[in-house]
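Researcher: Sequence of Putative enzyme follows. Predict its structure.
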Amino acid sequence: MSVMDAFRLNDRVALVTGGGSGIGLAFARAVAEAGADVAVVDWNEEAARKAAEQLAGETGRKVIALRADVSKEEDADRMVQETVRQLGGLDVCFANAGIGDEGALVTEYSKEDWDRVIAVNLTGVFLTDRAAARVMVERKRGSIINTASIYGLVGDFGMGAIGYTAAKGGVVQLTRTLAVQLAPMGIRVNAIAPAFIRTNLGEGKLREDVPDPELRKVHEEITRRTPIGRWGRPEDLAGIGVFLASDASAFCTGYIYAVDGGWLAV
Ligand code: ADP
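Model: Prediction complete. Tokens:
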């Protein structure tokens, strides 16, 4: 097989949670462009539907929209069952849905914020991976890709995203353990650790057009601190997404791939 053929995803089915926007949408587009049929899952039904329509038009692949809240067990199980029913299988699963955190000093950080962020960003990844693995073990084939963060590997850059960093650190360890458990069953499990990406979640209050000079300063500081000298774009995740989904990464499992403009190298 030529190396470019190894990247192809023809006849594969992929599911992407949080596929309605940002990084998830970029993953969904990338794997559809590489030849996969795709289930775009989001708790925002409208966003999922729009994304699916757009991607089907752009790529000519079969792309379906499903509404699910990944922090709910029944939803996570149902999204996988629906994908198998409508698209005929499940080869690739991106556990990507996530929410942001209200940064705070730990002494001020509320249990409500902690519970809210852990429920989606950690429990949601576990429930998604478990549901996908249950289908994949039967077919002895599959690739699971979790969206971690550089904040699963190092501490937060001064904003105090306490639940977020704890959840992403959990995703890193979940990825390693599942990779070891599932390797004999033909399933690979990896994670992608983005740094600052220009999405609703990534930029949030830090959008450059925000008039608050304090927030603008943080935005500029992040640019300056990043060796490549800019924020990431969702498309910057596309290449690694296809790589990890495809046979091009057949010998890669249990690893955390940073896509961070060099952030962790400093
Ligand atoms: P990023 O791509 O940086 O994670 P976005 O906010 O653009 O930031 O994308 C996250 C996506 O995940 C959104 O479309 C959002 O609706 C979705 N999402 C967040 N929480 C859940 C959840 N519990 N279940 C399903 N989708 C979710």
